[in-house]
Amino acid sequence: MSYLNTGDLEFPKEKFSTLLAIAEDLGFKDDIYDDGYISFEDTPRDIENDLRKLVVEAYKAGIPVKGKIHWYDSSSGCDGFYCVENGKLDCIDPAHNDIREASTEDLIAELKRRGEYKLEVPTPAGIIKAEPCADPNHPGIFLALTPKGFDIEIDLSLAEAEEKSENVSIFTWGNPSSEDWSRKDVIRRADVVSALKDI
Description:
Helices cover 26% and strands 38% of the residues. By secondary structure, it is an alpha+beta fold. It starts with a strand and ends with a helix.
């Protein structure tokens, strides 16, 4: 295989000498610069294992290293990215890189399009799920519980905004045996404005 690597990793400038000592042992002496970069420009070798060791050793030494290196295998025509952050190196393909590079807004829009825009949190009581309201005329968020050991959802709470008044209504289901909400609280726009003025 014939690999080419291109890209930059950043690190704090003041950690140059410490990182240089780590880099020398792993064959990166000529790739590290005192302005806070490890830079690759068509570096011709498979660097994955040594780069992973560098990232881990730097992390142990308290040196944050982050960035992305594009690799290309000329013998197979394959390519991908080494993504470095928080002491980890991930090797990802170009399609997954596109996902990483997407904006938060684009990711949310795609999840909404798929109908999968929700948050699930494991708890001792079961899975608590939060998801947007299905009714576009009443934007808000819905909470439900899937109790541990069961395959059903129990409604917990719904918070939705009223378009004209800008008030927020909060509905609570206090009785798991009933499909009807048991309490409604309204947070009025005027009260919110008044409270914020007092801060």
